TrEMBL record:
PROSITE patterns for the chain: HCY
Stretches assigned to coiled coil: none
Pfam families referenced in this protein's UniProt entry, alphabetically: S-methyl_trans
GO molecular function: cobalamin binding; metal ion binding; methionine synthase activity
InterPro entries linked to this entry: HCY_dom, HCY_dom_sf, Met_Synthase/Corrinoid
Family note: Belongs to the vitamin-B12 dependent methionine synthase family.
Catalytic activity as recorded in UniProt: (6S)-5-methyl-5,6,7,8-tetrahydrofolate + L-homocysteine = (6S)-5,6,7,8-tetrahydrofolate + L-methionine
Official protein name in the record: Methionine synthase
Functional note: Catalyzes the transfer of a methyl group from methyl-cobalamin to homocysteine, yielding enzyme-bound cob(I)alamin and methionine. Subsequently, remethylates the cofactor using methyltetrahydrofolate.
Pathway recorded for this protein: Amino-acid biosynthesis; L-methionine biosynthesis via de novo pathway; L-methionine from L-homocysteine (MetH route): step 1/1
All residue ranges annotated as the Hcy-binding domain in the record: 11-335
Lineage: Bacteria, Pseudomonadati, Pseudomonadota, Alphaproteobacteria, Rhodobacterales
Binding site for Zn(2+): 257, 320-321
Length: 347
């Protein structure tokens, strides 16, 4: 359905850059936001004067996406630090900016603004970085998995029950994708996929949004392996996952979150062996400790990701939970000497 659309200008530039080197994606937002030590008034904007115009009485502490509207300078500063740490591609802070995820905070009405502004803030941060060093950088509009799954029942006594339908998801993602493109996203990144059916709704919505805007944007699709058998929550191996999303002709396919680089490696190698497109990996900073925190340092993470690069497994690398600008800078330095993976040609 997007096959006839002209490629966006950023698409060609990204292809050129990816043919020359391993590209760098940014790291975690959550860790950086946590360090700001924000309270309820900071989240709602009452402390900064950027009060969200979408009124709700629901508590907002923990609604990190809302900071796009209520703490725009702080969010822009985090994006800027990742850009200056070496990120070529920086993600919007919109992981939960769908009506489905924002329903938890009674802020469904804010979703359009979150996505448009979320993309604009990254663009501003990247333009500032580029003004300093002349390097081009791209905005990846991030679409998270939502907190509901379309293929598994959350009720053990009612296996046929679903908390969300494919069409609910498609509509929510369509609104998100339209907002991200309107705000200037160069790429659409569907990430942390634990349920491939949710991801398929997101893919369909992204394609619809591209049709509306008359351009084909690069699509990045990133699954997450959640158990020791090497499967997604909805039960797919990396190979099965690839064949489920291949029709979308994604610019990259890959893995993020759940595992550190070490544990991700065999699953990434499997995906790299079957996917005839670019491969992207952004693991967590190791596995969480007993307090749910990540304590793998920048050099450790970078050394393991350099191993992915040395073995020709990757085209784009970055960090997920627990990673910081220091991790991204160490990763960028560690992979610089290696060539990007060659995309295999299959019939
Ligand atoms: Zn993560």
């Amino acid at each position: 359905m997007t096959g006839k659309l002209p490629l966006s200008p950023a698409f060609a530039a990204l292809n050129r850059a990816a043919s020359e080197r391993i590209l760098i994606l940014d790291g975690a937002m959550g860790t950086q936001i946590q360090q700001l030590g924000l309270d309820e008034d900071d989240y709602t904007g009452h402390a900064s004067g950027h009060v969200c115009r979408h009124h709700t009485d629901h508590p907002q502490k923990g609604n990190n996406d809302l900071l796009i509207l209520t703490q725009p300078e702080a969010v822009e500063d985090i994006h800027y630090r990742y850009a200056m740490a070496g990120a070529d591609i920086v993600e919007t802070n919109t992981f939960s900016s769908t009506t489905i995820a924002q329903a938890d905070y009674a802020l469904e009405n804010a979703v359009h603004d979150l996505n448009v502004e979320g993309a604009r803030i990254v663009r501003r941060a990247l333009d500032r970085a580029t003004a300093k060093d002349g390097r081009p950088r791209w905005v990846a509009g991030a679409l998270g998995p939502t907190n509901r799954t379309a293929s598994i029942s959350p009720d053990v006594n009612n296996p046929g029950y679903r908390a969300v339908t494919f069409d609910d998801l498609r509509q929510a993602y369509l609104q998100q994708a339209n907002g991200l493109i309107e705000g200037g996203a160069d790429i659409l990144l569907i990430e942390t996929i634990f349920d491939t059916l949710n991801a398929k709704a997101a893919i369909f919505a992204c394609m619809q949004a591209m049709e509306t805007h008359g351009q084909r944007l690069p699509l990045m699709i990133s699954g997450t392996i959640t158990d020791a058998s090497g499967r997604t929550l909805s039960g797919q191996t990396p190979t099965a996952f690839w064949h489920s999303v291949r029709h979308a002709q994604p610019w990259t396919v890959g893995l993020n979150c759940a595992l550190g680089a070490e544990a991700m490696r065999p699953h990434l190698a499997e995906l790299s062996g079957v996917a005839d497109t670019l491969i992207c990996a952004y693991p967590n900073a190791g596995l969480p400790n007993a307090f749910g925190q990540y304590d793998e340092g920048p050099d450790d993470t970078a050394r393991q990701i350099a191993g992915f690069a040395r073995d020709g497994l990757v085209n784009v690398v970055g960090g997920c939970c627990g990673t910081t600008p220091e991790h991204i800078s160490a990763i960028a330095e560690a992979v610089a000497e290696f060539s990007p993976r060659k995309v295999p040609e299959y019939a």
